Amino acid sequence: MQLKIYSLASINIDEVYHVPHIVKPGETLSSTQRQENAGGKGANASVAAARAGAKVHIVGKIGHDGLWVRDLLSSSGANTDLISVLDDTATGRAIIQVDTHGENSIVLFPGANYKVSKDDACRAFSQCSAGDWLLLTNETTGVADAIAQARACGMQILWNPAPMTADMVSSKQPVDMVDILVLNETELIALARQYDSIGMTEDADEKYTSIGRQVLDRLGIRAIIVTLGSDGSVGLVRRTRVNSHEVLVSSDSGSSSQSVASSAKSDDDIVVIRMGCAPVKKELIKDTTAAGDTWVGYFTAELVRLQNASPESVGSLASVTPTM
Question: Residue 195's pLDDT band (boundaries 50, 70, 90)?
Fold first, then answer.
């Protein structure tokens, strides 16, 4: 049986206005150009995963104004049967100002994304199989219920909790049920600051590794991936034992498992993986909008591909290194 991805997805219509400068309080400003695009962090990641070849089932809600977005998601290869259309609520919107320097300002209207409920998760996961992946962001309601339901169904869970909220710890979100937490550097620091005991090092080379280790220990989860923009990414993966044999993070990307794990001390149960970015020239980069969402989608799809190829790796996270 081939593993699938169930994506509890935010689905937005992005209204992009190009302006001479970001509007000031009390100012009325004419835009020079307007675009309307499909968006939403969850939708972006879902499209990326589908285009990477994974079987993706999108769980979400839209209004009738978002039917064209659903069609676009479907044409990208994702299954949209679990997207509900509401009669009394509009599709989520993002109102985006972009100035001549590329700086932006964004106002979000959650719309139908905030109508996702526990019942939606139960209905969606009734079709799942043990080992399937749940992919979530932080732009919908129903996240905690979906995580609990997915864990009860034996699913693997990857959460990209963006946008990060200041009460993620105090509201007792079930982060300890998650297999992989994906954060960018800003989100990692914001999460770490919700714990009084986590130290913030100023060492640039070890900063995110040190903070990530401490967060991993506090949460008790199995892996944290920190995306660092043009500096690549850092993965912190807890060693696990399957049938009393230690499972190391392995790599088929040019280095042995020993060299990948060499940054972990012999008495440490956490393997640190550092991956650079592809050497793309800056002048070839056209737009970084949704780059993080795209990374998450392709990352999850590659996890699924490798686990489908080696079913014995399901649950061990041994595929994290080659996936990164």
Answer: confident
Q: In angstroms, rounded to a whole number, what is the distance separating the alpha carbons of residues 226 and 192?
A: 13
pLDDT at 101: 80
Q: Which of 170, 172, 177 is nearest to 146 (CA)?
A: 177
The pTM of this model reads 0.86
CB-based contact 274:232 (threshold 8 Å): yes
Residue 214: closest CA among 233, 199, 234: 199
Residue 299 has pLDDT above 50, yes or no: yes
3-state secondary structure the chain: CCCCEEEECCCEEEEEEECCCCCCCCCCCCCCEEEEEEECHHHHHHHHHHHCCCCEEEEEEEEHHHHHHHHHHHHCCCECCCEEEECCCCCEEEEEEECCCCCEEEEEECHHHHHCCHHHHHHHHCCCCCCCEEEECCCCCCHHHHHHHHHHCCCEEEECCCCCCCCCCCCCCCHHHCCEEEEEHHHHHHHHCCCCCCCCCCCCCCHHHHHHHHHHHHHCCCEEEEECHHHCEEEEEECEEECCEEECCCCCCCCCHHHHHHHCCCCCCEEEEEECCCCCCHHHCCCCCCHHHHHHHHHHHHHHHHHHHCHHHCCCCCCHHHHC
Question: How much is the pLDDT for 152?
Answer: 93
d(CA 56, CA 46): 7
Half-sphere exposure of 301 (CA within 13 A, CB side): 21
Q: What is the pLDDT of residues 43-88, one digit of tens each?
A: 999 999 999 999 999 999 999 999 999 999 999 999 999 999 999 9
DSSP line for 275-322: E------GGG----TTHHHHHHHHHHHHHHHHHHH-GGGTTTTTTHHH
Confidence of residue 276 (pLDDT cuts 50, 70, 90): confident
